[in-house]
Design a protein that fits this description.
Layout lengths: L8 E6 L2 H14 L4 E5 L5 E3 L2 E3 L1 H10 L17 H8 L10 H15 L4 H11 L5 E4 L6 E6 L2 E4 H7 L6 E7 L8 H8 L3 E6 L4 H10 L3 H6 L5 E4 L2 E2 L2 E2 L4 H7 L6 H8 L5 E5 L13 E4 L6 H27 L5
Bound molecules: guanosine-5'-diphosphate (GDP).
Length: about 325
């Protein structure tokens, strides 16, 4: 890609809360019609007879301005009448579903029962919420993240919500990934010349980004993309900002460092963004590294980080193709 083309599109890969924060920053900095978000659906599951897509909904609610700012998941101004009534009936209440949120699951379930796709549902929901960005599930096929633990194989939500990430993780696999197909619009976007950057958001690399990369064709498309690929590390000062990322890294025998994150994404990325507190790591990493504040507390933080990433990606444009040809991408 030459610096003279009018590449104005950005692709972001993300899971739920952590990733959606940066997706919102990118959306606001880029403006309408310029962002595609490829979202993890390995966390999806059927519960109470409903099709639930937690990460997809977090991204839709976040970009639609509907997310609960405290929890990060679910909708703002939520009420919980249905959960109360369910508890009274002795029903399953370990997975919290708010009344407004339930409308999403009811509507999606009917949509899927009629044979329509999850991606078409996401596109319609995005339109209904006034979002001018493409929100793409990583696939329309039912890929499911299975966590192999010291308590046996647990479906993702059983590990994450029901068992609160307490079991020791031995391995993570993505059931039925081999049969899944990447969205054609993703393949076309990455193969075309309209992309200025591909951003791997600071989502959990093992639970949120790996399922996306497990869909046949996605990792290969990223590895050969002309646009620079930049990942943002979810590790700051040897700790995860939230969630089980650090615990899982330890359990998988990995050091909780930016080196481990760089190593994990090495075959895909042209650059890594780490927190300013970890600036000293840059010299040790074998990938171009930008050290800037990456902790996204408020909207200004999200927008600033998005701007920093795009500026960093622009510096990698000239070097990414020759470096790839030179075999840095293994
Ligand atoms: P998900 O993996 O995107 O579904 O969402 P989580 O909220 O579970 O976050 C996943 C990872 O993102 C965790 O390892 C967090 O450490 C990291 N994370 C969350 N918020 C931030 C942030 O503001 N900055 C950075 N750098 N990482 C974050």
């Amino acid at each position: 890609m030459s610096a003279h083309t009018s590449a104005d599109q950005v692709l972001a890969l993300c899971g739920g809360i952590g990733g959606a924060k940066l997706a919102l920053g990118l959306y606001r900095v880029l403006g309408p019609g310029r962002l595609t978000v490829l979202v993890n659906t390995g966390d999806d599951f059927e519960h109470l007879g409903l099709a639930i897509s937690p990460d997809l909904d977090t991204v839709l609610y976040t970009l639609g301005g509907l997310a609960d700012p405290e929890r990060g998941w679910g909708r703002a101004q939520e009420t919980w009448q249905c959960m109360e009534a369910l508890r009274q009936l002795g029903g399953e209440t370990w997975f919290q579903l708010g009344d407004r949120d339930l409308a999403m699951h009811v509507e999606r379930s009917g949509w899927l029962r009629r044979g329509q796709t999850l991606s078409a549902f996401a596109a319609r929901a995005a339109r209904q919420f006034g979002i001018d960005a493409h929100i793409l599930p990583m696939t329309d096929a039912p890929v499911r993240t299975i966590v192999e633990t010291d308590e046996g194989a647990l479906p993702f939500q059983h590990y994450f919500v029901r068992r609160r990430c307490e079991p020791v993780v031995r391995a993570i696999r993505f059931a039925r990934a081999a049969e899944a197909a990447a969205p054609q619009s993703f393949i076309d976007l990455v193969a075309g010349d309209s992309l200025r950057a591909i951003v791997i958001c600071p989502s959990n690399p093992y639970l949120s980004v790996d399922p996306i990369l497990a869909v046949p064709g996605i990792a290969a498309a990223l590895a050969t993309a002309r646009a620079p690929v930049v990942a943002v590390s979810p590790i700051i000062g040897g700790q995860a900002v939230k969630g089980p990322t650090a615990k899982i890294m330890v359990e998988l025998g990995l050091a909780v460092t930016n080196e481990s994150i760089a190593g994990h994404y090495r075959s895909l990325i042209d650059g890594l963004v780490v927190d300013e507190a970890d600036g000293a790591d840059a010299a040790r990493l074998d990938v171009p590294t930008l050290a800037v504040p990456t902790l996204m507390r408020d909207l200004a933080d999200r927008e600033r980080l998005a701007g920093d990433i795009l500026a960093f990606a622009a510096t990698l444009v000239q070097s990414s193709a020759p470096m790839r040809a030179g075999g840095r991408r293994r």
